[in-house]
Design brief:
Layout: E1 7-8, E2 20-21, H1 23-35, E3 40-43, H2 47-54, E4 64-68, E5 73-82, H3 87-106, E6 110-121, H4 123-134
Parallel strand pairs: 5-6
Antiparallel strand pairs: 1-2, 3-5, 4-5
């Protein structure tokens, strides 16, 4: 691991230079991969990401924390589940989807993908949110 908090890719000695991936890139990839899974209602963000999204800019890395350690990459995902879905099944699909997306896009293996379910979203909450935004 690099001292500049980026991940250097192992590519041998091809003479073209080096490739570095910032942790924010891994967060975005993991966030999109988690959001694609059926049963995920949304990702948890903080106040700042909520304000930025209201201004029209989507933050794909919200709800994802990436830690680069000596032993590998640890990904923590904080998400909301839809009511009525099987949490263990959906969490397993999120883990598989994130691992596969990171492997396909960066050729990096993850050491851990931890899923933290921080809430359940009911269908009537979605309708109330849409009504509030229309008013």
């Amino acid at each position: 691991m690099s001292e500049y908090n980026v991940l250097e890719m192992e590519q041998g000695n091809n003479g073209h230079g080096k490739i570095e991936i910032a942790p924010e890139v891994i967060e975005v990839i993991a966030g999109i991969a988690a959001s694609e899974v059926e049963g995920v209602a949304g990702m948890r963000g903080n106040f700042a990401t909520g304000v930025v999204e209201r201004l029209g800019k989507k933050n794909h890395g919200k709800g994802v924390k990436v830690e680069l350690t000596e032993t590998g990459i640890k990904v923590d995902v904080y998400c909301l589940m839809k009511f009525g879905t099987s949490i263990p099944t959906v969490a397993g699909k999120i883990q598989d989807n994130i691992r596969q997306a990171l492997l396909n896009m960066t050729a990096l293996e993850t050491e851990e993908v931890n899923i933290h379910v921080v809430g359940i979203q009911f269908e009537n909450q979605k309708i109330e949110t849409e009504i509030d935004s229309e008013i």
